[in-house]
Design brief:
Blueprint: E1 2-10, H1 14-24, H2 29-37, H3 42-62, E2 70-87, E3 93-108
Antiparallel strand pairs: 1-3, 2-3
Length: 110
């Protein structure tokens, strides 16, 4: 059985988040939680919250056992980007792109 949890419009770039997500893809849930807990990056804290949400969904909604769960699919998609301007020399402005991401974690007991 598959359980999914999604965080939309996370205020971190997808490129940074994919580095963390690639580490936990395909592993056991308990190992993934342990790994993400001790990583120093900001993305690790965000991914940890989504992972714990997926585990809670599996436990409470479907009554699944945590020990049997695996991270079957994890992906990070690009969300709409905030566009800002920064003052530059000679009265000009340059664009700053503040990227956002959608994080999806899918667990399965198979």
């Amino acid at each position: 059985m598959k359980v999914k949890s999604t965080l939309r419009y996370a205020r971190i770039s997808p490129q940074k988040t994919r580095l963390i997500v690639d580490m936990i893809r395909g592993s056991d849930v308990l190992a993934a939680i342990r790994l993400v807990k001790f990583l120093p990056q900001k993305a690790a804290k965000i991914v940890s919250k989504v992972l714990n949400s997926a585990v809670a969904n599996a436990e409470n909604n479907l009554g699944l056992d945590i020990d049997d769960l695996k991270v079957s699919q994890v992906y990070v998609n690009e969300a709409p980007t905030f566009k800002r301007f920064r003052a530059r020399a000679r009265g000009r402005g340059t664009r700053i792109l503040k990227r956002n991401s959608h994080i999806t974690i899918e667990l399965s007991d198979e």
